[in-house]
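$ ./design --mode recover --in tokens.txt
reading tokens...
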């Protein structure tokens, strides 16, 4: 499920785990 360790804290904010998704969170 988790591809990167940085996706762990991201899943709590966005809700979905994704490597390129981190840039989506930054935009929000």
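writing sequence...
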């Amino acid at each position: 499920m988790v591809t990167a360790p940085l996706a762990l804290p991201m899943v709590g904010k966005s809700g979905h785990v994704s490597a390129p998704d981190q840039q989506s969170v930054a935009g929000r």
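exit 0
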